[in-house]
Amino acid sequence: MARRSRSSTNVLVRLRTWFGLDQEALALYLGVSPGLIRSIETGRRALTADIFLALRPLVLHLPPPEAPAPVPAEGPPPGLPAPEAEELAFRRQVCAVQLAKLGRELAAIEARARVAARWAQALPALRQAAIEAHAIPDPDNPDRGSWLLGWLERQARPLPAQDATRWHLLRARLAALRAEVAALDDSAGGVSYV
Length: 194
Fold this sequence. Notes:
194 residues, 434 Repressor (Amino-terminal Domain), elongated
């Protein structure tokens, strides 16, 4: 048995893709079963003249097969109604609250990192001063010198890797939220709600 050309199946797939239809919706439009659409697309059944005639109004709106898909224009697509300003304003408020919260968290990590860096920079001198100050152990507190050295080392420890990871994730989330706020401002026609 000779294999049928797949060009007829491409028409159905192209139509479904172009118009955003699944097989069931296309079958409903044509008044046929979804199984028939599947069979035609897989090449088990041929595209009949009746089905092609029913598809013709849709086929006339398809771009040529070799033409690339149109580049979306800036702004909303034709036929999209104006957005609900209250919904956009509410989402912008939510973004603003999240921006503030995440910004505070980011600032706290940065502040802890700066403090740790200052301790690390001062550590050699502080360690030397502690060693000199406790060269002769205090009889009332003989462990003070070793305790102080350990305490200084802990102060100068860099932040753990999880804080560095959190810092990078927070920056990414902040950038995404700022982009969302800018897009919401564009959608609202430049009206700022915050």
